[in-house]
Protein 1
Amino acid sequence: MSAPMAAASVGLAELGFVEAAPAWRLRSEQFPSKVGGRPAWLGAAGLPGPARLACALCGRPLAFLLQLYAPLPGRADAFHRGLFLFCCRTPPCCAGLRVFRNQLPRRNDFYAYEPPSEDPPPETGESVCLQLESGAHLCRVCGCLGPKTCSRCHKAHYCSKEHQTLDWRLGHKQACPQAGEAPEEELDSMAKHESREDRIFQKFKTKISLEPEQILRYGRGLAPIWISGENIPQEKDIPDCPCGAKRIFEFQVMPHLLNYLKADSLGRSVDWGVLAIFTCAESCGLGTGYTEEFVWKQDLTDAP
Ligand SMILES: [Zn+2]
Ligand SMILES: [Zn+2]
Ligand SMILES: [Zn+2]
Ligand SMILES: [Zn+2]
């Protein structure tokens, strides 16, 4: 389950809210902004693989948090532009964050030149495997590149052992076309340990889909709004883009979204106040694919 975001202009900044929408609205060809579920990738080339989507602190796979459709008017090479934010949800870490930028010209290999239809497409149903038109296989759990496969059927793809285990417990154990052959004892025992974490994440996503409150503030080149006077970055704390350009503020995730994580009793381990995302001022096209940008995390300080 995932939820799209609506935007409302407030001065120069735009505020993002969570609203309900049918699933087809959240597919890549609709250019959605959304929270939770799987990423609706923009370009299908150069997707970040498991190594780039691993937590820099604990090494476990990051979870998709949200994506923003943020084209740059007047920039032919960024007619379509998406930002994809991932966070670590593995206790006790829950601290790693990574953000990726992808952009495409209006005429490209993946999407029609004309804007997408307003009408729902004919229902195609859920397929066993997720596959991009380019032929790349995606992890059934998180929708990121899935180079690993189920060792029995070789049809189900995964980004990592963690997600293979999760899917095993959530039903692939029964649904696997080769079910009943060699038992996967290792997966069985790993799966027992992951149920609580998964329940919490489901609860988080359900809540997100119900709560229409501000979760995001967008304002490329504006100043972020900080939640505390401490741990505000200086200019030197924001690394330049590898292309040589400065990075500028683009959007921030408001504490309201992060409150869900806390309320879900991942507890003391999740203590973000504000996440501020800084992107290349030139929105450069270094190579093709997904360019990593920079996240600044301002923690909540314990108020007296
Ligand atoms: Zn981590
Ligand atoms: Zn995965
Ligand atoms: Zn299988
Ligand atoms: Zn750059």
Protein 2
Amino acid sequence: MNKQQHAAFIAAAERALWTPKDHFQRAELSEIFERTAPLEIDLGCGDGAFLLAMAKRYPERNFLGTERLLGRIEKVSRAIGRAGFENARILRLESLYASQWLLPIGCAEVVHIGFPDPWPKRHHHERRLFQDEFMVALYQLVTPGGEVRIKTDDLPYFQWIEKVLARAKGFERIEWPEEPDYPRTDFEQHFLAQGLPIHRARLRKI
Ligand SMILES: C[S@@+](CC[C@H](N)C(=O)[O-])C[C@H]1O[C@@H](n2cnc3c(N)ncnc32)[C@H](O)[C@@H]1O
């Protein structure tokens, strides 16, 4: 890579990172992507394998990943820059806060939540992302008819999630047939390679 190419790569990686103008005010969609297109959000996107694979597969859609760990944010923004994708960006922010207070109301056609941290100890359950309050935030985030897709390997957490989903207003559970060539998250590939079951839930906003 020569100097010019390196500078272009750094600029593309910096563009991939979305830093809101104001963290205390709801953002406009046009602040995230210049282009108007259906938006999918990957909350807690980790190393971004799923985000990037989706952005490559569906160039006509926009993809926003959120993540709280700086190292992962840097990795994903570099990967987006390297791939030259204009339809993927990443935001460093906590998922509940982003859904509840920052992201535009009704902006997402699909919200993906892959392998959220299970917080297995009982006295840590209050840290789990899936709580009644989070479902209200998701309802607000998703466009009418839009979807929430959840995957986890952790059965006790999945049972917890199912109880939260059963209480949530405004969503219906829908079938989620296996699509063998649908992009997989890093954690999904890891657990599938070990032959472990993946628990899945797909919701539609009524
Ligand atoms: C188990 S990993 C799964 C990563 C990716 N979704 C996947 O399926 O490969 C969970 C990711 O969510 C991030 N995370 C956990 N809680 C979060 C929160 N409240 N807000 C933002 N990111 C969070 C973690 O830093 C981690 O990268």
